[in-house]
Amino acid sequence: MGTKRMLLVAMMVGLLLCTPLVAQAQREASGAGPVDIELWYGAAITEAGPPPEDWVGFQIIKDKLGINLKLTALPSNEADQDVKVSAAAAADNLPDIFMVRREVWLRLVNQGMLAPVDDLYAKMPTRTPLQYDADSIGFTTIDGVSYGLASPGSIPRNEGVLIRKDWLDKLGLKVPETLDDYMQVMKAFTFNDPDGNGKHDTYGYGAFIEINNFEEGLGRRMDPFFGAFGVAGTWNMTKADFGLNVRKGKYYDAMAFIKRMVDDGVIDPNWLAYKKDDFRAAWKQGRFGIMREQNAAFAATSNYAPFDKNFPDGEWIVADPPKGPEGKQAVGVYTSQYRVYAISDRVTAEKKDAIARLLDWMSSKEGYYLLGWGVEGVNYTLKDGIPVAAGVPDPELAFTGPKGQPYTQLRNMVFYNGEVELTSRYPTYKTATSGKEMSALRVLVDMQSRPWTAAIASDTLPPPSTDLKRFYEQGVTEFITGRRALNKANWDAWVAEFDKLGGKAWEEEARSVAAANGLLR
Amino acid sequence: MDASVSVPSSGKSLVRRIQRHRAIYVLLVIPITYFIIFKYIPIWNGQIAFKNFMPRQGVLGSAWIGFANFVEFFDSFYFWELLRNTVMYSVGKLLISIPLSIMLAIMLYECRITVLRKTVQTLAYLPHFLSWVIMYGILLGLLAPGDGLLNDIAKAFGGRGIDYLTNVQAFPWVVLLSDAWKEMGWGAIIFIAALMAIDPTLFEAAIVEGATAWQRVRYITLPSILPVIIMVVLLRLGTILSGGFNQLYMLYSPSVYSVGDIIDTWVFRGLQEGKFALATAVGLFKGLMGLLLLTFSNRMTRKVSGSSLY
Fold first, then answer.
1. CA of A55, closest CA in chain B: separation in Å?
2. Chain A, window 54-93: residues with a beta carbon less than 8 angstroms from a chain B beta carbon
3. Is residue B172 a part of any domain in this protein?
4. Which of B167, B253, B266, B276 is the best substitution to test chain A (most A C-beta atoms within 10 A)?
5. Residue B245: inside a domain
6. How many domains, in total, are found in chain B?
7. Smallest Cα–Cα separation from A105: which of A345, A359, A334?
8. Where are the alpha helices (DSSP H) in B36-157?
9. Is the predicted pLDDT of residue B170 greater than 50, yes or no?
10. Which terminus of chain B has fewer CB atoms gathered within 10 Å of its CB, N or C?
11. A137 within domain boundaries
12. Within this chain, do residues B169 and B264 fall inside the same structural domain, yes or no?
């Protein structure tokens, strides 16, 4: 009896395991019912959860478009995103449509794992004019075939140099303009007790290492100083002087200036150990008086609130980046920011059509507001045609509230940085403690008006090898920390070693790609 | 009377034994299934270590390239440094964490104040349950050069701040000691279990004979738990080329790459570039080295101490 019982249990387990497979096969064979589409998306709010199972969008998409949408959020960290997509590719198990960064996308194209999407543009009459133009299509076109849908990404030039105006006033200083001015102000912020608490607990500049393929070395937070020497970012994208900035003479001068900042103790000594959250906690605690920060991370309601509470009389202003010896200045480099969604070449023609229907609906008025802000009267109300959080019955369900945020996780698939979005996203408000009027939109406009260096498509150039990338990042950091003595002879020797390890070859390869694709200005 | 006994064939005997102990065999199905799915089937995919793996062509369809992936790893500009760092952290953790775990286990075992023992035990286990992300936040609070607790104390006594997390001299110690702090309590569990198995009459006899506490530890406790110590050390030797990815990935930064980059972090950066075949080759290399070390050490310890893992 015991053996029979065990056999029975084993059979039931086997049946249970097989049932979904059989059901799937039957559904596919009959062609009836909604089409399953698996979408891996980049979450709009990384700290909030995915749209809940009872999200009204699922039902609308099923009823109107005949699509059974399955959502998976990609990790918030770009490196982890790459690993997740690469792992799915290695298992030949890519989802139907997924967000992907350009380096990984390029590899997938070369491996023949992505479907051409040229035919989709015409199938999306509502979406295509809003989301795709010649530049964005060119961004995903290889040998005349487009392998991805590139939508407008994050807002370009949305960061700026910010200075504590209240500290300047207290110390009787003017807004700095040149590198020398900056150094004087940073010293005063460090040694003249700008917060007046009698302690040596403030610093001139705050930063952390934030690197990507077009902002290598010490990363974007130090770029205002490299910009003063005309060597911000990884690449110089001009015809006249194309190449890796780190191989240019002025890069050494910029390094020498930053080394002086470190040696003089005017930069927060924690900067090399900070992660992004630590850095952001630090400026809110009043540790430093100059930084490069993003507009919303600085001025959005919840982000500014802790600083406002800690320092009701505190005030940050946007300033021009430092002007270098030859009059050059730049907050940093900017490129075309695209968010690429690719389609697996495993999808059937039926699924591909369904994807086109889905994306086009997303950009329709119904989809745009539903994905962007949720349900009117529940997650937002309209004021002068702009969705606002005020006036909803349950403030927690407002699109800005903790319970409402999951409903807008797909908003980056429909936003295109239009006026409605920006006005809604960055409303003008009064701070809770000091009652100051703040507007992340005003800050954004101000930041965009400051000097920047264009490095369009520098993020599409080939990346370095793992070893070379490490050599680059480690080397510049070691010069700054003093592990390697920063003098011209040592620097030249290091650059020579960099070249020997593949730096020169990397530059030449990038030059060929840039020239072949007409990327040089 | 026929005195002969029929001897069942070994096949029948096995079936009979399975029938007799079927409940145990049913329980065994779960771990065996786990090992088959997650440990043995993937071995088949290990062949991509010798291939130019192209996902679309699959494991079988990708072209054989011999040892090219291994050569790429061995030819890495940083190969020796990666190997040195990995072994340094593995051996260092072995030398620091295991003795500390043994000491903690003995102290807890010897402690006669129940409240104190339980409190210390709980506090010692606690860090094991914290992720390295949380641990990094704690370490930054303790060790930051600007306002870390340790540096604040040093400055209060006229010393100068040390950038523990970004200084190549200090960083290895931060790694080793923070690992010891996090895992010491958890590692002590197995030794406490071994201590519980010691016959208490041995201690009673030793006390009657006038043995001091230290003498009891030296001549009874340590020899009694020696097989467990050997087992733990041998098992750790099998993973000697895994220096602790999670910890290093959280703690390191470009300024300490020279002492913080280990094989696994290097491979992870390669994975970001989609180098799965290279990662598999490195994994095979690590597994092979672990197997060799484990086998060799097992034989050596059997020869020297008479105790071994198998």
1. 32
2. 79, 82-83, 86-87, 89-92
3. yes
4. B253
5. yes
6. 2
7. A345
8. 41-45, 58-61, 68-74, 79-110, 114-125, 132-143, 149-156
9. yes
10. N
11. yes
12. yes
* Alpha carbon of residue A515 to chain centroid: 27
Which of A90, A113, A209 is nearest residue B276 as measured by Cβ atoms? Answer: A90
What range does the domain containing B137 cover? Answer: 78-305
For A492-510, letters b (16+ CB in 10 Å) and e give: eebbeebeebbbbebbeeb
Q: Do A272 and B165 touch (CB under 8 A)?
A: yes
Identity of the residue in A82, A112, A477 whose CB atom sits nearest the CB atom of B254: A477
Q: Is A376 on the interface with B (CB under 8 A)?
A: no
pLDDT band of B11, cuts 50, 70, 90: low
Question: Which residues of B fall within a CB distance of 8 Å from A270?
Answer: 140, 144-147
Percent of chain B with pLDDT over 70: 96
Please indicate, yes or no, whether residues B116 and B36 belong to a single structural domain of this protein: no
ipTM summary value: 0.81
Q: What is the 3-state secondary structure (H, E, C) of A262-321?
A: HHCCCECCCCCCCCHHHHHHHHHCCCEEEEEEEHHHHHCHHHHHHHHHHCCCCCEEEECC
Q: Is A328 in the same domain as A352?
A: no
Q: Residue A503 pLDDT more than 90? A: yes
pLDDT tens digits for range A75-109:
887 778 888 999 999 888 999 999 998 888 988 99
Are B254 and A473 in contact, with CB atoms under 8 Å apart? yes
Q: Do residues A312 and A404 share a domain?
A: no
Residues A457 and A409 in one domain: no
Chosen from B18, B29, B56 to mutate, greatest number of chain A CBs within 10 A: B56
Residues of B in contact with A477 (CB under 8 A): 253-255
pTM, two decimal places: 0.81
Beta carbons of A261 and A236 less than 8 angstroms apart: no
Structure tokens, B139: 């370490």
Using a CB-CB cut-off of 8 Å, the residues of chain B touching A478 are 255, 258
CB–CB contact A2 B144 (8 Å): no
Q: Are residues A308 and A175 part of one domain?
A: yes
Q: Assess whether A249 and A269 both reside in one domain.
A: yes
Sign, CA torsion A271/A275/A278/A283: positive
Question: Does the distance separating the beta carbons of B77 and A466 come in below 8 Å?
Answer: no
Domain that holds residue A265: 159-335+453-516
The 3-state secondary structure of A439-505, one letter per residue: CHHHHHHHHHCCCCEECCCHHHCCCCCHHHHHHHHHHHHHHHHCCCCCCHHHHHHHHHHHHHCCHHH
Find the CATH number of the domain harbouring A136: 3.40.190.10
Contacts of A87 in chain B (CB under 8 A): 271
Cβ neighbors of A161 (< 8 A, separation 6 or more) are A224, A290, A291, A292, A318, A319, A320, A321, A322, A331, A450
Residue A108 within any structural domain of the chain: yes
- Whether residue A210 lies within 8 A of chain B, CB to CB, comes out as no
What is the mean pLDDT of the segment spanning B53-63?
A: 88
* Contact state of A90 with B55 under an 8 Å Cβ cutoff: yes
Instruction: Select the residue from B133, B164, B273, B278 to test the A interface by mutation, using most A Cβ atoms within 10 A.
Output: B273
> How does pLDDT run across B210-247, given as a tens digit for each residue?
999 899 999 999 999 998 998 888 888 888 888 899 99
First-to-final CA distance of chain A: 82
The answer to whether residue B182 sits within a structural domain is yes
Q: Please check whether residue B19 lies inside any domain of the structure.
A: yes
Contact A89 B55 (CB under 8 A): yes
For residue A422, give the H/E element and its range: helix A419-425
